[in-house]
Amino acid sequence: MSDTDTTGLRARLIDVGVELVTAEGAQALTLREIARRAGVSHGAPRRYFPTHVELLSAIARRGFADLQDRAAKTVADAGTGPRVRLTALAEVYLGFALSQPGMYELMFRHDLLESNRLGLRETSLPMFATLVDLVGRVRPEADARILAGALWANLHGIAQLWGWGSLKLATGADDHTPLLIAALDAHLGPEER
């Protein structure tokens, strides 16, 4: 098999995994199902990904790259103020989580992934660094890394609970935007309006 064939099949396995997680969720990502949908034997993925975890990590890497691209474009277009940019970043994060729930779940299931392999950390950490930077600009007196972590946890909770329908039921809200604004205000102080 040529290097081009090897690279092509490796990419195809990841593509199929991305399609599968998008359509059916992280629980559908078995080696056998990915191989079947890629049109190869069930043992073929092992030639490119010695473990199931490595294939899942490669699929998650695509998700992180997609989210990072969306975030970078949105933040760049949001304006110059750190609060405006931070709000845009949070909106992209929630939008991704709610529109790509299967991929989002996989990306943050570190019990399923090897974040130190296949460049997963290098793909996932830049957005957190952006979050830390923007939080530090809005709240220079605070420990930006800790505050950004708390804000991220809050956003993750909103994404999960909104996606499950729990926040709609509990708050009666028709849109997650008021919850996002409340989380930003809680962590950063009220925005001047």
UniProtKB/TrEMBL annotation:
GO terms for molecular function: DNA-binding transcription factor activity; transcription cis-regulatory region binding. Residues 7-67 form the HTH tetR-type domain. Residues 30-49 bind DNA. InterPro entries: Homeodomain-like_sf (IPR009057), HTH-type_TetR-like_transc_reg (IPR050109), HTH_TetR (IPR001647), MT1864/Rv1816-like_C (IPR025996), Tet_transcr_reg_TetR-rel_C_sf (IPR036271). The keyword Protein biosynthesis does not apply. The keyword Ion transport does not apply. Keywords: DNA-binding, Transcription, Transcription regulation. PROSITE patterns: HTH_TETR_2 (PS50977). This is TetR family transcriptional regulator. It comes from Streptomyces populi.
